[in-house]
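In this section we walk through a basic example: taking a raw amino acid sequence and producing a predicted 3D structure, encoded as discrete structure tokens. The instruction is simple. Fold the sequence below.
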Amino acid sequence: MTDPIRLSKRLIELVGCSRREADLFIEGGWVTVDGEVIDEPQFKVEGQKVELDKDAKATAPEPVTILLNVPAGIDTDSAMQLISAETLSEEHRYGKRPLRGHFLRLSTSADLQANASGLLVFTQDWKILRKLTADSAKIEQEYVVEVEGDMVAHGLNRLTHGLTHKGKELPAVKASWQNENRLRFAMKNPQPGIIAQLCQAVGLKVISVRRIRIGGVSIGKVPVGQWRYMSGKEKF
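The resulting token sequence is shown next.
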């Protein structure tokens, strides 16, 4: 019997790499233990079969951006707790393999409206975080809003040209009916509570709000409480 040792140490013994290279190989998902990918250098092994992928690269993993379909009524910290390998959308379990490092050092921007559900972005990429922050006034967001009540005459026209409600000027937005009780709103940098105010101004009461798109990135077919990776082809 041999004493358990760190996976990184076993890998060094096997391939003659440096400690730093061993850590990068493992954190990059290139190492298997008895056929299972293990991405923790400190993982303890004994007599298991440790293998390094023939295409392995000793480079830091690329930063990822995670698109979470967040339930209504939870804060950002609680939303982040939903992100794990187990909550990756079944339809998106191909291509990129979830690694432990993908769930570290995540930042978010573009907060949701109060009590809204839908698309929330978590990213490790400083360029994307800067884009969402610095260009927030230029990036269009799209919401689906379930409402009840009877819209005032010419309500859609009023929404798309701007209106005043309770002495406050409200911005012009793109608005259209999705069905008989759901409106689509598209607007740039929506201020907190603005959707509820817009609906009230045309005689409607908000039942629920769901964000489905930020810029050119939509949440797609991701169930509530689950997430997918943003692809390299998508742009905010």
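Looking at the output, two observations stand out. Helices lie at 7-15, 19-27, 76-80, 126-134, 155-161, 194-201. DSSP finds six helices and 16 strands in the chain. In the next section we compare this with other chains.
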